[in-house]
# Entry
Amino acid sequence: MSNKRLKFNGVTIGYDNQTLIHNINLDLPANKLIGLVGENGSGKTTLFNTLLGNIPSLTGQITFNNQPIIEVEKIFSVVFTKRVSIQGFSGLDMLSMAKITNANWKGGISPDDKKEIISFAKTLVIENLLNKQINELSDGQYQKLMVAKAVLQDTPIILMDEPTAFLDIKNKKQINNLLLSLVKDQNKTIIVSTHDEIFCTQYCENLMVIKENTLTLTESNIGLQSIFE
Amino acid sequence: MKANKTYSVLLLILFVLMVLSMLLGTVYKGFEQSFDLSNAMTQLRLSRTVTAIVVGIGISVSGLLLQTLFRNPLAGPSVLGISSGATLGVSVGLLLLPMLGITLSSFSVTLLGIIGSFCITLMLLITTRYINNNNTLLIIGLMLGYFTSSIINVLSFYTDKSSLQELVFWGLGSFTKEISLTTIGIYSSVIILLVMCSIVFVKRLDLYLLGDNYARALGLNVKQTRYIIILIASLLIGLITSWCGPIAFIGIAVPHIARNILKSSKHFNVILISIIIGAILALVCDIISRLPGLDQTLPLNAVTSIIGAPLVIWIIFKNKLV
# Structure
């Protein structure tokens, strides 16, 4: 999966009455941690929704490995900002959802998948969350769990919509380091929508910048200040 | 296995209640006569027992489906206006048509109830095309409920005393509306079929719980799943409501009890446990409503509310839903 790339060929995104980003032509490098930056309302979340097929692109085509994207769940996994609250749902239940496409009709996962989940949870030192109810987790614990779920879904690309927006400095650092190690050790491509300057300059290799209705790819070392001022 | 033990205990309780339901009534006829099928009273009790079990199962599963649909533990069959739709259909059969000189059989009235709930469901399905938000759908359902209720009020205002009385009695709920075992058999098969349909979709229901965004990203067709849930739930509620009246509280309470016993929301087990507990709770309510020593049977909805309402409040506090 390592060098398959996400390509935008003349893609325009937005809604019928409002175009947000015009004519994107982009060949995204693989195995990188990429920051997606832009002002509020510039189209970051809409871009994710377009990638996930929730809203159609207005023009052009998005391809992965030169194929149109049909089974979204095999290419992208996602982490959103907002918490979901489910009564009676343990950390293990949540991580199992990453393997739901392989599950039997009752929604039960195979013993092999369960083994994989538990051993991965141990690697991330979150095995203590497996038996806890997700509604009882702290924001930091919850977001680590969701990152783990995204990784376990075993997709080449992970999309994250401001995953650390509600976290304190310590948890932010832990998650950011985790993302870096995933890019290095597991050959993931991770696109993170963010407003966090430190994250962009210290962790990301590239930035996707949305400015004045255009999307461009830049090196991360130029800094957010010079882009937006 | 702990799960197997739970199933065994619950099934045992259900069996004991079934026997009790055959034995107990305003008169006690002894053990042997109570199970002699040539006896008219036995047939009556059998039809009542079967009705209670099937209706308890159906209403509980519909309650669970609605709680999943809205991802809201306080949803139940009376939300969405589906029960009201069924009530409107039945009112047309019991109030409006007799005014025009048309009297219907109870089977036709039931059919009208199903048509009523189905019309409301169709309206909801049309609105879901334009709405992606569950809370908006919930509010529209409530408004549809108010709308139909006011039509019923207008009908009741112009109707004669005896028709009105009939509607009021129907509204109290009862497991003895139909005594023909053939009719009960037909209704029951439809309900069991619908319950089996919802069991087939447990994996989708689990995914749906994650919320639209995560569910979609895991490949779930959210809109289609919403259609399926609304369709199954409304058919169940329409049929049950027009058959036995709007049964209160069982639909909202049972899924909670099931989740509390299992400490899990995974639908496969929650549906199975809800089925057993739904049957148990309906039987308990029915047995209480005709305890020996009472000359008449109590209104079913009074009993289900007296047991159900405190149960729901207790669950809310216990799960810190406030």
Summary: The longest helix of chain B spans residues 40-69. The mean pLDDT of chain B is 87. Chain B is about 75% helix and 0% strand. Chain B touches chain A at residues 71, 73, 200, 202-203, 206-207, 209-211, 213-214, 216-219, 259, 262-268, 319 (CB under 8 Å).
